[in-house]
Amino acid sequence: IDGVCAKGAGSTLLTGPGLERMSSVVRAMSGAMRRTPLTIKVRMGYDDDPAKYVAHDVLPLAKGWGAAAATLHGRTRQQRYSRLADWSYIHRCADAAAPSALPLIGNGDVFSWRDYEEHMSSGRLATCMIGRGALIKPWLLTEIKERRHWDITASERLGIFRDFANHGLEHWGADEKGVETTRRFMLEWMTYTHRYVPVGLLEAGVVQHMHLRPMPYTGRNELETLLASDQVEDWLRIAEMFLGKPAPSFSFVPKHKSNSYSSESAAALASWDAGEQMNG
Asked: Least C-beta-crowded within 10 Å: which of 6, 34, 50, 222?
C-alpha cells in the first residue's frame, strides 16, 4: 500500500492534484475499454479526518468520467482496518451519487448474511462487495443466499482446502514449481482462514466480528483446533495433507498480519499473552 501511494497512485488520487489525475485515468480507461463497462473502487478519503472525506464529492462525477459503477470502501487510507467501516457515510455517498444514476456498491466488514441484509435494506445500494469475509469464510455467500449461519464442520472446511489444492495443481501444474506455487497461495490464504470461530462455539445470539481478533480457543475436535492455529508450522501440516512435504529450501513469511484488526483487539491479545506467560 505504501509503495503504491508513494508513486502517486491508489488513495493518493483522492488528494489535491490527484483528483484531476483520477479523472484523466478513468476517462482514458473507459475510452480504451470501449464496450466493456469500467468500474472503479475508492475509499472515503486519504486522511483519517471526517472533514477531509472526499468520496461524496468524487462519486457524483464518476459517471461523467465514464465509470459504469463504483465501489466505496467505508474506510480511509490512514485508518486501514483500525475501526469498523463507516456505513452511514457509504449511504450518504449513495444519496450523493443517485442523481447521476451511478450504481454504488458498498464495501467493508460484511461477515454474515445479517450484515449483508442490513446494509441492503435501505435500497440505496446496488449490492455489497465482499473481500476479507469471503477469505475467512468461503461459504459466506452460501449463508447470504440461504439466510442462515452455517455451523460448518472441520471436515467440511478441510474439504475446501482439498478442492483448492486440486484447482491449484490443475491451474499451475503438478510439477515441482506448480506444487510449491499452490502451497504458497494456500498458506497465504490460511493467514485469513484461521481467524474463523465456529458458530457452534459461540454463545447463543453472539456473532463473530471481523475487526475483533478472536482469542485462542480449543475446537470441538483436534482438526478444528488445528484449523484455528495461527502458527505457520500448523498451516504447513495442513498443506502437506494434499501437497506432500515441501522442498528443504521452501520458506514462507505471511504478508497479512495483525493490522487487519482494531487497536483494541491488539491490546486485548497482548494482555492475554502476558497473562499466559505469567501462568506458565
From this structure: 34
